[in-house]
TrEMBL record:
<keyword id="KW-0326">Glycosidase</keyword>
<dbReference type="GO" id="GO:0005980">
    <property type="term" value="P:glycogen catabolic process"/>
</dbReference>
<feature type="region of interest" description="Disordered">
    <location>
        <begin position="1"/>
        <end position="31"/>
    </location>
</feature>
<dbReference type="InterPro" id="IPR044505">
    <property type="entry name" value="GlgX_Isoamylase_N_E_set"/>
</dbReference>
<dbReference type="InterPro" id="IPR004193">
    <property type="entry name" value="Glyco_hydro_13_N"/>
</dbReference>
<protein>
    <submittedName>
        <fullName>GlgX-like protein</fullName>
        <ecNumber>3.2.1.-</ecNumber>
    </submittedName>
</protein>
<dbReference type="InterPro" id="IPR006047">
    <property type="entry name" value="GH13_cat_dom"/>
</dbReference>
<feature type="region of interest" description="Disordered">
    <location>
        <begin position="502"/>
        <end position="526"/>
    </location>
</feature>
<keyword id="KW-0378">Hydrolase</keyword>
<feature type="domain" description="Glycosyl hydrolase family 13 catalytic">
    <location>
        <begin position="195"/>
        <end position="606"/>
    </location>
</feature>
<feature type="compositionally biased region" description="Basic and acidic residues">
    <location>
        <begin position="502"/>
        <end position="514"/>
    </location>
</feature>
<dbReference type="InterPro" id="IPR013783">
    <property type="entry name" value="Ig-like_fold"/>
</dbReference>
<dbReference type="InterPro" id="IPR014756">
    <property type="entry name" value="Ig_E-set"/>
</dbReference>
<dbReference type="InterPro" id="IPR013780">
    <property type="entry name" value="Glyco_hydro_b"/>
</dbReference>
<comment type="similarity">
    <text>Belongs to the glycosyl hydrolase 13 family.</text>
</comment>
<dbReference type="InterPro" id="IPR017853">
    <property type="entry name" value="GH"/>
</dbReference>
<dbReference type="Pfam" id="PF02922">
    <property type="entry name" value="CBM_48"/>
</dbReference>
Amino acid sequence: MSSAAEQETCAGEGRPAPVVNGAARPAPAWPGAPTPLGARFRAGPDGVAGTNFALWAGGAEAVELCLFDDAGGERRVRLTELTHEIWHGFVPGVLPGQRYGYRVHGRWDPWTGGRWNPAKLLLDPYARAVDGEFSLPPEVYGHVRDWPQQQVADTVRDDRDSAPFVPKGVVVHDDDDWADDRRPKTPWADSVIYELHVKGFTRLHPGVPGELRGTYAGLAHPAALEHLTGLGVTAVELLPVHQFAHEDHLLRRGLRNHWGYNSIGYFAPHAAYAASGTRGQQVGEFKRMVRALHAAGIEVILDVVYNHTAEAGELGPTLSLKGIDNRGYYRLQADARRYADYTGCGNTLHVVQPHVLRLITDSLRYWVTEMGVDGFRFDLAAALARSMHDVDMLSPFLAVIAQDPVLRRVKLIAEPWDVGSGGYQVGAFPPLWTEWNDRYRDAVRDFWRHALPDVREMGYRLSGSSDLYAWGGRRPYASVNFVTAHDGFTLRDLVSYERKHNEANGEGNRDGSNDNRSWNCGAEGETDDEGIRALRRRQLRNLLTTLLLSTGVPMLVAGDEMGRTQGGNNNAYCQDNEIGWLDWQLLAEPGWKALFDLTARLIALRHRHPVLRRRAFFSGRAHSADGLRDLAWFTARGTEMTEGDWYAPAATLGMYLSGRDIPGRDERGAPIVDDSFLAVLHAGERPVDFVLPGPPWAKRYEVVVDTSAEEQAAPPPAAHRAGTTITVPERSVLLLKVTG
């Protein structure tokens, strides 16, 4: 390590820091161009093939491009051209497959936020492929990680070379125009989203060849596609596929980041999910996966993490942005040594900065235009919507998205919160955006464990959450309804555990939420009691049926439709093993196969009936002389609910959906007309007598779905006259179609 005085002298005189590990003398570069950013293979002057490199590094004093051969040998090229804070140069003879990184020189001054250290090889933020995996030995930290006085460790520069220990960017040739691709372009109201993990979904799939399991090619395999098309979902929402790194605390415990919410490369498909290679082949493999999903009628939505990076806080590694321009890329506190952390992950990207906003929007457009994806789910989106401090729905990020001709046309889903003050923003995002609706999740969980004080909340959630979204031209499909997500219990665990069981994570069971709103049906965890097991399967049918009958966009989690369990782990982010992978053998068990069949049948029912996927909110008013309304609510007595009924404790709720009063017209301008339905949801522990409403609502009904039955009969097994009393079994849903 050099002394602080020596470091300041070098930086103060404008000279680069000493040569690291005796690297070869820099080779010359032609001027090249400052745009586009990143590494772009092209023909240069006189048709000479080569690659243009461009890096924004606002406060840097010098930038070296580092080219690596297959043996790890390094050749350095000084980028001498500087245009609008972008360092650039064209290097002839650099072809696709070339591995590279940057060394950026500047002042080491953590007290003012400057953390330049040319001993650290940095990943290009615009790298389109990454070769190698991140490990975190001491050499990859810009400071001396193991300094005895940890309270000042981040201020002591580490001059050891990190190049042998970090992945490299890869030059990729983009030559795909997507002319043969046909995007499904499924309307929001018709969408059914299926959240899955590329590796976890295919790792144990018996129909996918062994060499393709856990990869993009595995997800594109006909055996994987068959499950998705058989289920009937219209979109897959992929857990993060941007290049990510594993956290130090996990590696020390022999674990890995499985979910991938630790991004470090916003343009590169995560290399470990590629079967074909990591020298650019992962890009083509990802594109072929997208094409295969599109051909099956399935859209691709990416879960993206632009709120923070894998570099963590001041004690984290130096992998990319921290060493390029720490002050320019990250939000810092008044004490510039420290990071503003609205994410709980150590740092927050400074999205108000134009070059950071450009990085994010360039990345988004790249994945749409060149990688073929159809939309994005933004992790901790409230952090992106912050201006200087507060969440601002007129923030630069949201304004840019709203006017961008590419991005405003794709599906945009916000996780509408972060961990900072004022970060909970459910219902607040502007038109164009949909949101994960956690109030839907909580209400449905509480209803089916019979924990709601009344049914007001349930009424709003079943009918599209108009209290949250009926403003500014938003529609019911602004609500992405879910009961489970990757974060938390699986659906089976939700009815099997009342407490989290995260011991395998190595954090003393302290991690993960304690607010699960779960009910174990009488025993904690797996049991041989067949009565409890049957009740759990019924509760699963109730939860799935409620989700798929609700107005809004339903989101399922991969495996919930066939009884997947994580053994009570509600935070399996580091379980890259059987806990985090789907067990496809479940489909061989009759009980779980029946659950899959019911889920597929409910999705097909939703696709057939526009009354279940409305494009406008219910009015609750009569539109004809007979008094029939588009939505009505009934008590078990068969009477319409009064204001007092909404405020009273209740375990039974009847919801009438009129197919006669659907707003809007079809593609030919004709009115949209559908069947009408009555859904009866009963969470009580004993059967209840329910009086079927008579005219004008109906004259006759037939049962379409009865969740008290393990096997769902088809055609419908029962029909009833209006005005008669039927018995609704304990803890069940009846869906009845009006037949007269």
